[in-house]
Design a protein that fits this description.
The complex is a heterodimer of chains A (235) and B (258). With 235 residues, chain A is of the alpha+beta class. Chain A has helices at residues 4-28, 30-37, 40-59, 61-65, 67-85, 88-96, 206-230, and strands at residues 104-110, 114-120, 125-141, 149-160, 163-171, 176-178, 181-188, 195-202. The chains are: A alpha+beta (235), B mainly alpha (258).
Chain lengths: 235, 258
């Protein structure tokens, strides 16, 4: 096991490096940042980060003995690993192994019609194991003369083996979670309002992320508020 | 920059005047009277936020005007909280912070009421922004102590007060970030969108993590450097809150917040 001081110094260096990379990312725009942070060289950085956190947990007895400290560092490991399982590269590994799950894509459905085809990102068609039927697409406006949109709604049915298994209304900020996908209100027919565009996003890796969120939040609140400020254990 | 003669703006100017008066009385050592005027300023600030709420018919945290109005309300509860929980005073400093944050709301930002667009209609709207604003105002107070530590010859008290304030604010920074991410998944389909505001807020969060690790490593050996971390954190917050929304360099999903 390397010396504790070395681990801390390397850890602090990684934190500062990541801070600087985030600032750099803010300047180059979302699209290029997304690509850079999800690239193969960057994956090495993430693996090293997880590796160092794991070493840290085994080397520092406090990280093991104090549940709050353990929770926040474990949470951070979960966030890095979880976000890796949510990347396109990771998901395409499964696709090539024959386990087809659509990573993300959009579907266009006319009112009264049903659809199971998804236009995936690189311009390829993929097929969902269920179909979505659009009963109605609605737009609600604010009740004044501002003409401002209050919300967009798609009343849909999920059809599996020609049976309706679920009816739901998808609106902005209210996606439907079904069969391993989140289905979002994405767009509509701006001329005649006859069709809706839904976005389908795979939920792979999401539960790991949420677990990471919970661990980090509980750990941080417990450590800083309870241990430090209430119990006044400052060292 | 201009003076506006609307009820809303007059309430803001009144709050600022009360905070200023409170500060003047407070530094002249009439601490009780100063605190009483400060309380009165808080009441006017609360009326001001309530008035805005009624005008726009939603919780006023949508744009920079409303957010700075809200920051002007938070200084007084923060003074009480840090006095009671952390044993850190600095009321005079908080009054000045109150005046500074109300200035852009009173004289600079547009107060035109806006409808809440569909993307903002979610229960997470209020907690995400309110928690962030509370974190930001706490970190501002921490940065004042940090600056005190940098400028004074004996930094030890300032450094410790700043540390306690960061301990109070950092979990809020974390919860704000997590709630934002959780909301982004619901509203936009991704829990992280690599948007400039997200990148700056992550950088801010990481910077404070860097501070905690640095302070764990060196303790109170380099007090000025500890203070410098916190002041840098405040600069990052300022960039996240203002520069990202006001400049054309950082176009992204959070731009409607203007």
């Amino acid at each position: 096991m390397p010396n504790k001081r070395v681990i801390l110094t390397v850890g602090l260096t990684l934190i500062i490096a990541l801070t600087a990379l985030c600032v750099f990312g803010a300047f180059i725009g979302a699209e290029r940042t997304h690509k850079a942070f999800n690239s193969i060289p960057f994956a090495a950085f993430w693996f090293f980060f997880v590796f160092l956190l794991a070493i840290g947990i085994f080397s520092f007895r406090n990280l093991f003995r104090k549940p709050a400290l353990f929770a926040m560092h474990l949470g951070f490991i979960l966030l890095i690993l979880g976000s890796m399982t949510g990347t396109e590269i990771y998901n395409n590994q499964f696709a090539s192994a024959g386990l087809t799950k659509i990573y993300r894509g959009k579907m266009l459905i006319f009112e009264g019609g049903s659809q199971n085809k998804v236009l995936a990102e690189p311009g390829t068609m993929a097929v969902l194991p269920f179909a979505i039927k659009l009963d109605d697409f609605r737009i609600e406006y604010y009740p004044d003369d501002s003409n401002a949109v209050k919300d967009y709604f798609s009343d849909i049915e999920i059809i599996k083996d020609s049976n309706t298994v679920k009816t739901a209304t998808i609106e902005v900020n209210k996606p439907l979670h079904f069969g391993g996908y989140h289905i979002y209100q994405h767009g509509y027919d701006e001329q005649h309002g006859r069709f809706t565009i839904l976005e389908v996003v795979s939920d792979t890796g999401l539960s790991i992320i949420y677990a990471g969120f919970i661990f980090v939040c509980i750990g941080v609140a417990w450590h800083f508020w309870y241990e430090r400020l209430i119990k006044k254990r400052y060292l | 920059m201009r003076i506006y003669f609307t009820t809303q703006h007059l309430l803001i100017y009144q709050t600022m005047a009360l905070y200023l008066l409170a500060w003047a009385v407070y530094v002249l050592k009439y601490k009780k009277t100063g605190t009483a005027i400060y309380t009165l300023g808080f009441v006017v600030a609360a009326i001001s936020v309530a008035y805005r709420w009624i005008t726009v018919e939603h919780i006023p945290l949508q744009n920079l005007f409303e957010v700075f109005l809200f920051l002007g309300l938070l200084v007084f509860p923060l003074s009480l909280l840090s006095q009671k929980v952390l044993n850190v005073g600095g009321y005079g400093c908080d009054m000045i912070i109150g005046i500074i944050v109300l200035f852009p709301a009173g004289f600079v930002f547009s107060a035109a009421p806006q409808h809440l667009p569909p993307a903002l209609q979610c229960w997470l709207f209020t907690p995400h922004i309110a928690i962030y604003m509370l974190a930001y105002i706490i970190m501002t107070k921490a940065a004042c102590q940090g600056l005190g530590g940098l400028l004074c010859s004996s930094a030890i008290d300032h450094e410790f007060r700043a540390y306690k304030l960061v301990c109070l604010g950092f979990p809020l920074l974390t919860i704000g970030l997590v709630l934002g991410s959780f909301w982004a998944k619901i509203a936009w389909g991704d829990y992280w969108n690599w948007d400039p505001k997200e990148m700056w807020s992550l950088a801010t969060w990481l910077l404070f993590i860097g501070y905690f690790h640095y302070r764990y490593m060196t303790g109170v050996k380099y007090l000025k450097l500890n203070c410098l971390w916190i002041v840098t954190g405040f600069v990052f917050i300022l960039i996240t809150l203002l520069w990202v929304n006001l400049s054309r360099i950082f176009i992204g999903l959070h731009n409607y917040a203007l």
